[in-house]
Design goal:
Number of domains: 1
CATH architecture: Orthogonal Bundle
InterPro entries: HTH_HxlR (IPR002577), WH-like_DNA-bd_sf (IPR036388), WH_DNA-bd_sf (IPR036390)
Keywords: DNA-binding, Transcription, Transcription regulation
Strand content: 5-15%
Largest sheet: 3 strands, antiparallel
Structural class: mainly alpha
Strand order of the largest sheet: 1-3-2
CATH superfamily: Winged helix-like DNA-binding domain superfamily/Winged helix DNA-binding domain
Protein name: HxlR family transcriptional regulator
Order of helices and strands: HHEHHEEHH
Pfam family, one: HxlR
Helix content: 55-70%
């Protein structure tokens, strides 16, 4: 009987690049915020007050390029732009929620490990 076990997954440079882009300083917050509802640029800045205009622009462009966010030009006067989570991006919501839950439940343990490390230095 031939061995039918799947090959173990190996992270490639392409995987690492995508993860770096999704897990950067602002992208998870942008995705999480857009999963709630579509937002205009300034609404995103208000929802994520620590982000700079340049950082938010960079994150949105990167997320749009990766197919996670859709930029929609609204036919209003003046013309406005709205950002929406794409169908592909919405597949991350469960993962984002689980990651936030994990950080919430393990943060005390991580903080204790940090303190122990800092004391040993």
């Amino acid at each position: 009987m031939p061995d039918t076990a799947p090959e173990p997954l190996r992270m490639t440079a392409e995987h690492r690049e995508l993860l770096d882009q999704l897990l950067d300083k602002w992208s998870l917050q942008v995705l999480d915020t857009l999963c709630e509802r579509p937002r205009r640029f300034n609404e995103l800045r208000q929802a994520i007050p620590a982000v700079t205009q340049k950082s938010l622009t960079t994150a949105l462009r990167r997320l749009e390029r990766n197919g996670m966010v859709t930029r929609v030009v609204l036919s209003t006067r003046p013309v406005a732009v709205e950002y929406r989570i794409s169908p592909l991006g919405s597949t991350l919501q469960d993962l984002i929620d689980r990651l936030y839950h994990w950080t919430t439940t393990t943060l005390p343990e991580v903080e204790a490990a940090r303190e122990a490390y800092d004391r040993s230095e």
